[in-house]
Amino acid sequence: MSDWGPVFIAVVLFVLLSPGLLFQVPGHHRCVEFGNFQTSGASIMVHSLLYFALVCVFLLAVKVHLYLD
C-alpha cells in the first residue's frame, strides 16, 4: 500500500495556485485579478509562498492520506 495523499494534494494545489490561471495576487492593475493568464515576478513569489504554506498545513497539520490498492 502506498500513500498517494501528498502527491494528490501537491498536484491539485500546484494547478489551482498557478499564477494567472484562476486568480493572480498581486495583479497588474488591481490587487487581485481573475483569469487573466498573465504573470509577474511578484505574483510568482506570492503564489509560491501560498503553495508552500498550504502544502505544509495539509501534509503536516491535517495529515491527509490516500491509500490506493
TrEMBL record:
The keyword Signal applies. It holds the Pfam family DUF3339. The chain crosses the membrane at residues 48-68. The keyword Repeat does not apply. Keywords: Membrane, Signal, Transmembrane, Transmembrane helix. It comes from the Eukaryota. InterPro entries: DUF3339. Residues 1-22 form the signal peptide. PANTHER family: OS05G0103400 PROTEIN, PROTEIN, PUTATIVE (DUF 3339)-RELATED. This is Transmembrane protein. The lineage of its organism: Eukaryota, Viridiplantae, Streptophyta, Embryophyta, Tracheophyta.
